[in-house]
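Aim 2, interim progress. The first record below pairs a target sequence with its structure tokens.
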Amino acid sequence: MDIKYTQPFVDATVKVLETMAFITPTLRQVGPWEKTVAAGQVVGIIGLSNEDERLQGFMSLGFTEASICRIVSNMLGEEFTHICDEIREAVGEIANMISGQARQGLSARGVKLQAALPSVISGTDLVVDGTEKTPHVMITFDTESGPFEIGLCINGLP
């Protein structure tokens, strides 16, 4: 996937987490999505498509328990130490915000996408497989509290 399509997701992630959680994530890697087990214990997934559905796919946003607990604690001003309903709701909202910001960036590049409502799953050894769609990419970030990742699969990009 061309950097002009991944960079809006990187920029949106940094902006959302800096603004909402006062955390500046560090980009570790942008590379192919080669695994099926999510890096984290909670994952938000948002379907993406354009108006005529020639572009279809999804964005996944997976956090380790430590990283999302710190992010949500900062966002809400309340200490969270484990995944609970508030954490799951926050992951959906964070995914929504990142998706919205990234779609604005993509729109400026001529790619207009719409997003579905986010779904959130949590647990251990979560399977989120984007390797069957093309192109597919995994964007990995680090925070002081642990890593998180964004998976992108959008069929039909030029």
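The second target in this work package is listed in the same format:
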Amino acid sequence: MKIKAGFTLIELLVVIAIIGILGSIAYPSFQSHMLKARRGDAKAELIKAQMKQTSLHILGNYSSSLTTVGLSASTDYYDFRIYSVSANTYSIEAKAISTAMQNNDTGCTTLTTDQDSNQTPPDCW
């Protein structure tokens, strides 16, 4: 009598079920890490702009222009703006785009920093 090698339908269904369970556990963790990574990119852009603002202040005054400090108006996940600019103060903001996945980054959708490195919200930095 010949024995046929191979998998039964039940064995294949069990493997597919296990893969589905592992995927359903891994996907939320992956999403969380992606939110943190994108937030990290926004923070890096804010810090670079802050360093440029410091250089500009040494030469004269802070700038209210995004292009002068090396920021684009928006990326795929964040909109940037500079506000409250005076001779001695400024604030830079990165706000998650409402239609982007980054808008699900609860409590960390708006990141700000100023001339004194006051970064809000502190838990997101």
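The chain has a mean pLDDT of 92. This observation will shape the mutagenesis plan for the next reporting period.
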